[in-house]
Each structure stands twice: as C-alpha cells, then as structure tokens.
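Good morning,

Attaching, inline, the backbone tokens for the sequence recovery test we're adding to the shared suite. The designed sequence is right after.
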C-alpha cells in the first residue's frame, strides 16, 4: 500500500524554504507589517520602527531580493510597498493564525 504524494521538485522546495527564511527575522516581519498599511519611504519606516536607516536599508535589500517588497522612485527617494497581493495574503493569514485561540 503506497502513498501517492506529489511533492514539488527539489528546486521549488529549496526556493520555498528560502522564502520562509525571510519571515524568520522579526525585523523583516515588522517592515512587512508596516507596509501592509501602504507605501513608505525609508525615513518613514525608520521612524515607524524606531530603527536606523542602515538597518532598515539592509533588511529592505534582503526583502527586495526575495521579491517580497518593491521599490519605486519618487523624486529623490524610493518608496517601498509589498511586492504583490501574495505577500499581503501571507502576512495577513499569518497574523490571523497567531491570533486564533
């Protein structure tokens, strides 16, 4: 009696594990939660999270390379947002899950 389970290919599982590693850092999760409210520039994120610009910029670089946040130029500054609705859903569902009793 065999089990018929279809697992993603190894590369997909590796990529998924790497994605979830990004959520393993509370600073990155704080940035993502702040961006749930809408677009913010680095200085606004620094103020909202009480962090230095270099710390926020470092984490944004990681989040951007993981395709979790997107940036667009607005004059001299870059405004960051969640990359897409998938990211918004992941954060929202995660929050729902931890708030369950």
């Amino acid at each position: 009696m065999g089990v018929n389970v279809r697992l993603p290919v190894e590369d997909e599982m590796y990529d998924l594990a790497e994605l979830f590693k990004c959520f393993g850092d509370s600073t990155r999760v704080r940035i993502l939660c702040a961006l749930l409210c809408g677009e913010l520039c680095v200085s606004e994120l620094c103020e909202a999270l009480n962090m230095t610009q270099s710390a926020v910029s470092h984490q944004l670089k990681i989040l951007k390379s993981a395709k979790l946040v997107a940036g667009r130029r607005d004059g001299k500054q870059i405004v960051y947002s969640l990359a897409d609705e998938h990211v918004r859903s992941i954060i929202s569902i995660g929050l729902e899950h931890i708030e369950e009793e």
